[in-house]
Amino acid sequence: MTDSTPPPPSPASTPRKKSGTRLALEFTGIPPSWFDKRPRLPSRNWLIFLSVTSSVVAYYAYDRRESRKIRQAYVDRVKHLAEEPLHSLDYARTVKVYSAKWPGDDDWDRGAKYFRKYVKPIFVAAAVDYAVIAGKRHGDLATRVANDIQAERRAALGLDPPSQATLALPSKGTPEDMRRRALEGGTVIIGRPAFKEYMAGLRRGWTDSLERVDKDELLSRELENDGRFDEPEAAAADPAAALADDEPLPTPSRLPPSRPAGLFSPLNTMRAPPPAPTPSTATRDAGADVPPPAQIPRQPPFLLVPFVNLVGIKLIPLMIWDFFNERKKVRAGAEAAYQLVARATRPFERADLDFDTSAEGYYKSSTAKIPAEVQKARETYYKALPEKLAAARALARGEREPTKLEVEAPPPTEVELRAERLKKEARWTGDERGWDVVRPDGSVDWDERWEGTLEVFVDPPASIENEQTA
Questions:
Q1: What pLDDT shows up at residue 469?
Q2: Closest by alpha carbon to 132, among 180, 91, 190, 182?
Q3: At what angle do helices 462-469 and 44-82 cross, to 10 degrees?
Q4: Helices marked H in 97-139 — which ranges?
Q5: pLDDT 10s digits, 353-365
Q6: Do residues 104 and 290 touch, judged by C-beta distance below 8 A?
Q7: What would you report as the CA-atom Rg of the chain, rounded to the nearest whole angstrom?
Q8: Do the beta carbons of residue 342 and residue 460 sit within 8 Å?
Q9: Closest to 378 in 3D by CA, of 313, 312, 424
């Protein structure tokens, strides 16, 4: 007799008991097959993508975290200076920041942006005020520095009255007090181009004449004899040819006078206007006779901040490298700012004229064509000028009627053309002179009379650093 009892089911065929969470999720509409999937490694391509992406993101996060740590470490070193009490009539320590246009970059404010991002946070933590002076074109910063120095020299010699700002705010104190505060502050120079322009402006300010000169008037005198606005030769033909026209009788304006004017005629009784004063008879500015000083006074110490602006397709790899190494810029800017806050200085040496020379190797190669581009723009303008000038004179003299386009958009008059030409020549001349200052093969201006009057901020000794962090 055989046993009809069925064999017990194998464990593999026994359905697994579902948990309450799974049953609840299944009732929400999630397909049951989703719960039966088992995790497995991604494919080869996904592994490559995830590893590269996670590495890049992790390196970026690490760099930014380290940047914050470095900046906070220097902020903690100097923040106690902001807690020191200040008298109600005193002023916070103020520095001047000079930035120049980087050759080959249309954004002229790059140096100032570098200062605000990497140097300014330490100044703010130490309660150090600042004033940013940036040049929009090559040579603007040198001109600004020279004009400021000459204005100070004229005011010190009594050639100019005191400025209205000093009279309106007597709390600023005497000029000696303002000079003392300037020496206690400092001068921040961002990059090699700004350093070259500042030294050029320093030389012009202390060596050029103090005579007041209107540069636009001086330039207009230089341009008035170049013949660009002279009448065409056809208009200056023989006067007898002017009578050979279709007029049947000579007009009164072309008839010669029948006799000379009488003794008591209005033409003889009218007094001729006095001749315009020539430069030899005009009043001479007293500043023209002031010689340059044998030695300039002590200047505010320099804080030389290295700065490189990467511009161009060839430098894209370096741009990517800098993007992931922000901490190096943060450390360099914080260390430079800490030097100024700590007030540790040394005399300026001739070797300091080579400051940041390696930055000139990052100039775009196209910057060497700047003089040629200026000359080309000048030639293009003067090539089109005769046609514009002829149209302006023809319309002004009524020789022809204006066209429909000229009625809708009137062409410039001769006066406007002269003003436009003066403006363009001033810009072209300034660009040429400015490029001569910052060009990489040019040297930094230096004068032997500056020995012993210039100083540079340096890293503070360990003793001073310990006292400030204590």
A1: 57
A2: 190
A3: 80
A4: 110-114, 120-125
A5: 999 999 999 999 9
A6: no
A7: 38
A8: yes
A9: 424
Residue 295 backbone class (left: φ over 0; alpha: ψ -120 to 50; beta: rest): beta
| Farthest-apart Cα atoms in the chain, separation | 172
- Tokens 């209107």 map to which residue? 214
Calpha distance 98→95 (Å, rounded): 10
Interatomic CA distance for residues 102 and 138, integer angstroms: 8
Instruction: Burial-class residue 163 by CB neighbours within 10 Å (0-12, 13-18, 19+).
Output: exposed
Q: Are 426 and 318 in contact (CB under 8 A)?
A: no
359's tokens: 């930055």
pLDDT of 173: 66
Identity (one letter) of the amino acid at 391?
A
Tokens representing residue 322 in the block? 């800098």
Rounded-to-integer distance, Cα 87 and Cα 84, Å = 10
Q: Please tell me what DSSP assigns to residue 246.
A: S
Task: Give CA–CA dist 64/326, Å, rounded.
Answer: 7
The two three-digit tokens of residue 218, written as one number: 């001086």
Q: What is the torsion angle, in degrees rounded to the nearest 10, for the CA atoms of residue 318, residue 319, residue 320 and residue 322?
A: 80
Q: Which two tokens stand for residue 49?
A: 């993508």
Contact by Cβ (8 Å): 111, 102 = yes
Pull the structure tokens for residue 21: 């969470």
pLDDT score for 252: 42
Q: Which residues of the chain have pLDDT under 70?
A: 1-16, 162-173, 233-284, 463-470
Q: How far apart are CA 155 and CA 111, in angstroms?
A: 31
Mean residue pLDDT across the chain: 84
